[in-house]
Amino acid sequence: MKNDSRDAPGKSEIAKFLDKRIYELSHRKSQRDIAREIGFANDNVVTMLKSGRTKVPLSRVVSIARTLETDARQLFILALMQDGHEKDRAAFEEIVGESVSANEKEIIVALRKVSNGTDPKISVVLRKILRALFGDMGGKKQDDDAE
User: Fold this and answer.
1) What pLDDT, in 10s, does the model give residues 54-63?
2) What global pTM score does this model have?
3) How does DSSP assign 63-129, residue by residue?
């Protein structure tokens, strides 16, 4: 059985995230493709990033997020924390705001449109509808019916 380095102890959260995301995209993009899309001349940089041997440069967060089809804001928070600033996570998240992806923004825009610009409170029924639409998409099961 192959050793899965994505869960290696001592590996930074961003390195684990990058390793997992690159693995998830491996059926569509090679590591060489990813390196080129980000703008790295050397494919080995991607290996070093996902192993944690090299830190993610803040200047590359947007291109990395775009290439890996992930949320740049959340990746930026992980990049800020890569120097061992886990205790500062709440401050980072407060400064950059709650992480909302581009797809989530589209859902918010649609919700505002169908609610005529109101701010509808989420109800038990709406939570059930959302669960029916999205199902369990690998997330942690929560008791969404409790209000």
Assistant:
1) 999 989 999 9
2) 0.61
3) HHHHHTTS-HHHHHHHHHHTTT-GGGHHHHHHHH-S---HHHHHHHHHHHHHTTT--PPP-HHHHHH
